[in-house]
Design goal:
With 228 residues, this protein is α/β, with parallel strands linked by helices. The chain is built from 9 helices and 6 strands; from the N terminus they run H-H-E-H-E-H-E-H-E-E-H-E-H-H-H. Strands 3-2-1-5-4-6 form a 6-stranded parallel beta sheet, sandwiched between helices.
Length: 228
Protein backbone atom coordinates (compact mmCIF):
# COMPACT_ATOMS: atom_id res chain seq x y z
CA UNK A 1 0.00 0.00 0.00
CA UNK A 2 1.13 3.55 -0.65
CA UNK A 3 1.02 6.13 2.15
CA UNK A 4 -2.39 7.50 1.20
CA UNK A 5 -3.93 4.03 1.07
CA UNK A 6 -2.43 3.18 4.46
CA UNK A 7 -4.06 6.26 6.02
CA UNK A 8 -7.40 5.30 4.49
CA UNK A 9 -7.01 1.70 5.68
CA UNK A 10 -6.26 2.81 9.24
CA UNK A 11 -9.36 5.03 9.27
CA UNK A 12 -11.37 2.07 7.97
CA UNK A 13 -10.07 -0.27 10.67
CA UNK A 14 -10.48 2.36 13.38
CA UNK A 15 -14.21 2.23 12.78
CA UNK A 16 -14.19 -1.27 14.29
CA UNK A 17 -12.24 -0.24 17.42
CA UNK A 18 -13.66 1.21 20.61
CA UNK A 19 -12.85 4.82 21.45
CA UNK A 20 -10.84 3.66 24.47
CA UNK A 21 -8.73 1.34 22.33
CA UNK A 22 -8.08 4.09 19.76
CA UNK A 23 -6.99 6.49 22.49
CA UNK A 24 -4.74 3.85 24.04
CA UNK A 25 -3.08 3.16 20.68
CA UNK A 26 -2.49 6.88 20.13
CA UNK A 27 -0.95 7.19 23.59
CA UNK A 28 1.32 4.16 23.45
CA UNK A 29 2.60 4.71 19.90
CA UNK A 30 4.27 7.95 21.03
CA UNK A 31 6.71 5.95 23.17
CA UNK A 32 7.53 3.12 20.77
CA UNK A 33 11.07 3.05 19.44
CA UNK A 34 13.34 1.18 17.06
CA UNK A 35 16.44 3.02 18.25
CA UNK A 36 16.97 0.18 20.73
CA UNK A 37 15.99 -3.38 19.91
CA UNK A 38 16.24 -6.68 21.79
CA UNK A 39 17.89 -9.90 20.62
CA UNK A 40 17.35 -13.17 22.51
CA UNK A 41 19.67 -16.07 21.79
CA UNK A 42 18.36 -19.54 22.62
CA UNK A 43 16.13 -18.43 25.50
CA UNK A 44 14.02 -21.51 26.17
CA UNK A 45 12.63 -21.09 29.71
CA UNK A 46 9.00 -19.95 29.14
CA UNK A 47 8.94 -17.82 32.29
CA UNK A 48 12.07 -15.86 31.36
CA UNK A 49 11.15 -15.62 27.68
CA UNK A 50 7.78 -14.16 28.59
CA UNK A 51 9.11 -11.79 31.24
CA UNK A 52 11.55 -10.26 28.74
CA UNK A 53 8.70 -9.61 26.29
CA UNK A 54 6.72 -7.90 29.03
CA UNK A 55 9.68 -5.66 29.89
CA UNK A 56 10.23 -4.85 26.22
CA UNK A 57 6.62 -3.77 25.80
CA UNK A 58 6.61 -1.68 28.98
CA UNK A 59 9.80 0.17 28.02
CA UNK A 60 8.57 1.02 24.52
CA UNK A 61 10.55 -1.48 22.45
CA UNK A 62 8.84 -2.32 19.16
CA UNK A 63 10.91 -5.23 17.80
CA UNK A 64 12.29 -8.35 19.45
CA UNK A 65 14.64 -10.65 17.52
CA UNK A 66 14.63 -14.31 18.54
CA UNK A 67 17.51 -16.62 17.67
CA UNK A 68 16.66 -20.32 17.77
CA UNK A 69 19.75 -22.51 17.47
CA UNK A 70 19.48 -25.31 20.02
CA UNK A 71 16.26 -24.20 21.69
CA UNK A 72 12.79 -23.27 20.47
CA UNK A 73 11.44 -20.05 21.94
CA UNK A 74 8.40 -20.67 24.15
CA UNK A 75 6.16 -18.10 25.85
CA UNK A 76 4.13 -18.46 29.06
CA UNK A 77 0.91 -16.47 28.41
CA UNK A 78 0.32 -15.82 32.11
CA UNK A 79 3.69 -14.13 32.48
CA UNK A 80 3.70 -12.34 29.11
CA UNK A 81 0.31 -10.78 29.93
CA UNK A 82 -0.46 -10.33 26.22
CA UNK A 83 2.70 -8.29 25.57
CA UNK A 84 3.68 -10.34 22.51
CA UNK A 85 0.55 -9.03 20.78
CA UNK A 86 2.04 -5.53 20.72
CA UNK A 87 5.58 -6.48 19.70
CA UNK A 88 7.06 -7.49 16.36
CA UNK A 89 8.71 -10.87 16.92
CA UNK A 90 11.35 -11.73 14.32
CA UNK A 91 12.61 -15.32 14.46
CA UNK A 92 15.87 -16.67 13.04
CA UNK A 93 15.77 -20.46 12.74
CA UNK A 94 16.48 -21.38 9.13
CA UNK A 95 20.28 -21.59 8.95
CA UNK A 96 23.00 -23.66 10.62
CA UNK A 97 24.13 -20.68 12.69
CA UNK A 98 21.18 -18.40 13.20
CA UNK A 99 23.15 -16.04 15.42
CA UNK A 100 25.27 -14.86 12.50
CA UNK A 101 22.17 -14.59 10.32
CA UNK A 102 20.50 -12.37 12.92
CA UNK A 103 23.60 -10.21 13.32
CA UNK A 104 23.86 -9.75 9.57
CA UNK A 105 20.20 -8.71 9.27
CA UNK A 106 20.51 -6.28 12.18
CA UNK A 107 23.66 -4.65 10.82
CA UNK A 108 21.98 -4.20 7.45
CA UNK A 109 19.18 -2.40 9.33
CA UNK A 110 21.74 -0.04 10.84
CA UNK A 111 22.21 -1.57 14.29
CA UNK A 112 25.42 -2.04 16.22
CA UNK A 113 25.51 -5.32 18.14
CA UNK A 114 25.88 -5.00 21.92
CA UNK A 115 26.41 -8.28 23.79
CA UNK A 116 25.24 -8.12 27.40
CA UNK A 117 28.11 -9.99 29.01
CA UNK A 118 31.24 -9.16 31.01
CA UNK A 119 34.21 -8.65 28.67
CA UNK A 120 37.67 -7.12 28.61
CA UNK A 121 36.31 -4.08 26.80
CA UNK A 122 32.86 -3.90 28.38
CA UNK A 123 30.93 -0.78 29.37
CA UNK A 124 28.35 -0.12 32.06
CA UNK A 125 24.83 1.23 31.54
CA UNK A 126 26.08 4.69 32.47
CA UNK A 127 29.04 4.56 30.10
CA UNK A 128 27.57 3.14 26.91
CA UNK A 129 26.71 5.59 24.14
CA UNK A 130 23.19 5.82 22.75
CA UNK A 131 24.32 7.43 19.51
CA UNK A 132 23.30 5.15 16.67
CA UNK A 133 20.84 2.26 16.78
CA UNK A 134 21.60 -0.45 19.32
CA UNK A 135 20.72 -4.15 19.37
CA UNK A 136 21.03 -5.59 22.90
CA UNK A 137 21.78 -9.32 22.87
CA UNK A 138 20.78 -11.48 25.85
CA UNK A 139 21.68 -15.15 26.38
CA UNK A 140 20.38 -18.13 28.31
CA UNK A 141 20.10 -18.34 32.08
CA UNK A 142 22.81 -20.97 32.61
CA UNK A 143 25.23 -20.69 29.70
CA UNK A 144 24.82 -17.05 28.73
CA UNK A 145 25.64 -16.00 25.18
CA UNK A 146 27.32 -18.37 22.76
CA UNK A 147 30.96 -17.91 21.75
CA UNK A 148 29.72 -16.89 18.30
CA UNK A 149 27.46 -14.20 19.74
CA UNK A 150 30.26 -12.78 21.88
CA UNK A 151 33.04 -12.96 19.28
CA UNK A 152 30.99 -11.24 16.60
CA UNK A 153 29.53 -8.42 18.73
CA UNK A 154 30.57 -4.81 18.25
CA UNK A 155 30.40 -3.78 21.89
CA UNK A 156 29.88 -5.33 25.33
CA UNK A 157 27.65 -4.24 28.18
CA UNK A 158 27.96 -5.18 31.85
CA UNK A 159 25.58 -4.57 34.75
CA UNK A 160 27.63 -4.03 37.94
CA UNK A 161 27.09 -6.60 40.69
CA UNK A 162 27.99 -6.19 44.35
CA UNK A 163 26.85 -9.46 45.91
CA UNK A 164 27.90 -13.11 46.03
CA UNK A 165 25.68 -14.41 43.22
CA UNK A 166 27.36 -14.85 39.83
CA UNK A 167 24.78 -13.11 37.67
CA UNK A 168 21.34 -11.56 37.40
CA UNK A 169 18.42 -13.62 36.17
CA UNK A 170 18.00 -13.05 32.40
CA UNK A 171 14.59 -11.42 32.81
CA UNK A 172 15.91 -9.12 35.56
CA UNK A 173 18.97 -8.26 33.49
CA UNK A 174 16.79 -7.35 30.51
CA UNK A 175 14.41 -5.28 32.64
CA UNK A 176 17.24 -3.31 34.29
CA UNK A 177 18.99 -2.71 30.98
CA UNK A 178 15.91 -1.72 28.99
CA UNK A 179 14.48 0.57 31.65
CA UNK A 180 17.79 2.35 32.26
CA UNK A 181 18.69 2.84 28.60
CA UNK A 182 15.22 3.82 27.34
CA UNK A 183 14.86 6.38 30.14
CA UNK A 184 18.27 7.76 29.25
CA UNK A 185 17.31 7.76 25.57
CA UNK A 186 14.05 9.67 26.08
CA UNK A 187 15.79 12.34 28.12
CA UNK A 188 18.35 12.86 25.35
CA UNK A 189 18.17 14.80 22.09
CA UNK A 190 18.55 11.60 20.06
CA UNK A 191 15.81 11.16 17.39
CA UNK A 192 14.58 7.89 18.88
CA UNK A 193 10.92 8.11 17.82
CA UNK A 194 9.36 6.07 15.03
CA UNK A 195 9.01 7.75 11.66
CA UNK A 196 5.52 8.83 10.57
CA UNK A 197 5.20 5.80 8.28
CA UNK A 198 6.50 3.41 10.95
CA UNK A 199 3.85 4.74 13.34
CA UNK A 200 1.19 4.28 10.68
CA UNK A 201 2.31 0.71 9.90
CA UNK A 202 2.36 -0.15 13.60
CA UNK A 203 -1.10 1.28 14.27
CA UNK A 204 -2.48 -0.72 11.35
CA UNK A 205 -0.84 -3.89 12.66
CA UNK A 206 -2.18 -3.32 16.19
CA UNK A 207 -5.68 -2.75 14.83
CA UNK A 208 -5.47 -5.95 12.76
CA UNK A 209 -4.32 -7.90 15.82
CA UNK A 210 -7.26 -6.53 17.78
CA UNK A 211 -10.09 -7.08 15.30
CA UNK A 212 -11.37 -10.63 14.80
CA UNK A 213 -11.05 -11.86 11.21
CA UNK A 214 -9.14 -8.71 10.28
CA UNK A 215 -8.01 -10.34 7.05
CA UNK A 216 -11.61 -10.33 5.82
CA UNK A 217 -11.96 -6.63 6.59
CA UNK A 218 -8.72 -5.92 4.73
CA UNK A 219 -10.01 -7.85 1.73
CA UNK A 220 -13.29 -5.89 1.86
CA UNK A 221 -11.40 -2.58 2.05
CA UNK A 222 -9.19 -3.38 -0.93
CA UNK A 223 -12.13 -4.56 -3.02
CA UNK A 224 -14.11 -1.37 -2.28
CA UNK A 225 -11.11 0.79 -3.08
CA UNK A 226 -10.47 -1.05 -6.32
CA UNK A 227 -14.06 -0.67 -7.47
CA UNK A 228 -14.33 3.02 -6.54
Amino acid sequence: MDLKTKHEFLRFLSGYLTENRRQLFDKVIQYRTRHITVVLEDIFQPHNASAVLRSADLTGILDVHIIENRNKYSVNPEVAMGSSKWLNLNKYNETEDNTLAAYDALRKAGYRIVATTPHTHDQTLDEISLKGKMALVFGTELKGLSETAIANADEYLRIPMYGFTESYNISVSAALTLFTLTEKMRKSQIPWQLSAEERLDTLIEWAKRTIKHAELFEKEFLQKRKSS
